[in-house]
Amino acid sequence: MNENVCVFPGSFNPFTLGHRHLAELALEKYDKVIIAVAGETYKGDMLGADKRVKIARESLANDARFDVKYFSGMLTDFLAETGCFNVVRGYRDEKDYEYEKELERIYVSMDRRVNFVLLRSAMADISSEKVRRAAAAGGSLDGLVAPGATDDIRKYYGK
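The structure assignment produced for this chain is given below.
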């Protein structure tokens, strides 16, 4: 695969403007970003992967620089399948940073080809949990999610 591509993995439950911001930051270093939506995670309140993929695609407005893909199993297996070992992850604060550095150590120990790039979020106040709570309460999603994804987020996460 082209060396100038990266993988931005996550649960994206749902994909937010914070996620989009990080994906756009990745474009400063890479020509293309693969948004890798994890099928299985440790999180209990997970929306089905098909719906999370749909919301991510809606959030990126069919921008050809982004490719949204579903993956199941280990991230390192997905990276080997795609032939892309550049991984972009975001962090909000020192706690997130330490967590992401631990993930980096794990993935690099599993496959030495993995190259992690950590990006600091300028939109640290936006989280998927905040979006889920706002949608469940019927609150405003303005400034939290892309307008093209609002209807589906309300449908899937609202009460």
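Interim note for the steering committee: Residues 94-110 form the longest helix (17 residues). The CA atoms of residues 63 and 124 lie 24 Å apart.
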